[in-house]
Amino acid sequence: MSIEENVKQWLSEEDFIREVRYDENADFHFIIEFPKDNIMEVIKPKCKDFILIACATKVAQEHLNLMNNADALTKKDFIMALNFSLNSYLVDFELRVVQDILQQFVVTDQIFEDGLTKHELIKTIKRVFKAKLQCVWLIDQKFTRPNITGTSSNENDMFI
Q1: What secondary structure does DSSP assign to 104-136, as a single string?
Q2: Full domain range(s) for residue 13
Q3: 134 located within any domain
C-alpha cells in the first residue's frame, strides 16, 4: 500500500477523517477530528518525505479583550511562558502576536516516511492536540473574566 492509503486507512480505523481535501501543493490532505469537535490536518507536502500534522487555533474574542486590558508585563510574561510551555512538547509552533497580544497559534509536528507507523501517527496527533490544549489552558489561566458576583471562585465549579 502507498503512504496515502496507509494513512487514510489508519485514520479511518480510528474514525478521525472528516474530509479529503484537494490541495495542489500536497500529495494528500486530510481534515481530521481529534478529539470530538477539534479539527486538525494531516498533509503530505509534494516532493517531501514526511507528513505534517497541524492544528491552528484562533484566540476567542473574550480572551483577546482580556489580554488587551492586561498590563504590558503580564502580556510579555504570558508570551514567554507560552513559548517555554510549547517548547516542552517537542512540537513546532507559530504564534501570531500583535502588540504583545496572541491572536492565533499553529502547532505542527512531522513524521518522516521511514518512521511512519500507525502508532507514531496517532501518538503525534495526540501530542499536537495536547500542545494546543496546553495553550488554551494557559490562556484561560492567565486571562479569565473577573468573578462578577464578588464571591470566592471555586476551581471545580463544573463538578458542583
Answers
A1: EEEEEEEEEGGG--HHHHHHHHHHHHHHHHHHH
A2: 3-144
A3: yes
Overall average pLDDT of the 63-92 stretch: 95
Residue 121, sorted as left (phi over 0), alpha (psi -120 to 50) or beta, turns out to be alpha
What is the distance between the alpha carbons of residues 28 and 113, in angstroms, rounded to a whole number?
14
Amino acid at 50: F
Q: Distance (Å, rounded) from C-alpha 72 to C-alpha 99?
A: 9
Hunting for cell 512540537 — which residue is that? 91
- In this predicted structure, what is the pLDDT of residue 1? 85
Residue 34 lies in a domain: yes
We report the CATH number of the domain holding residue 133 as 3.30.1460.10
Angle between helices 3-13 and 118-142 (to 10 degrees): 60
pLDDT band of residue 25 (cuts 50, 70, 90) is very high
